[in-house]
Write a structure and sequence with these properties.
mainly alpha; 0% strand
């Protein structure tokens, strides 16, 4: 029994040698995935698996996909947002209170 509405998914089979050559030549995980005919996550997962097997694949700089860099300024803004939208403060310390408690 088949589903007429099912989307055909083309599976791409690539040897480890070909995968490594394409991965190492690429300038990003997205570029490697496109060249391999894979989704980015699948390519990243395969690269991680090969690294676990002691293959020295290069690592690409992480992309944020629209998320902000999570530096000190980000944490400060998120804490302010939490305080702004907090309803019942019995179980949470404010940032100032937790800093005073640490000192």
């Amino acid at each position: 029994m088949t589903d007429d509405n099912a989307v055909a998914v083309k599976q791409t089979r690539t040897s480890d040698g070909d995968f490594i050559a394409i991965w190492q030549a690429a300038s990003s995980a997205e570029e490697a995935a496109d060249a391999l005919g894979l989704q980015r996550g699948s390519a990243m997962q395969r690269a991680a698996k090969l690294r676990k097997e002691s293959i020295n694949l290069k690592k690409f700089k992480a992309t944020s996909f629209g998320r902000e860099v999570r530096d000190a300024a980000y944490v400060e803004r998120m804490n302010a947002l939490c305080a702004e939208h907090f309803v019942d403060g019995d179980n949470v310390q404010s940032v100032d209170e937790s800093t005073e408690a640490d000192n």
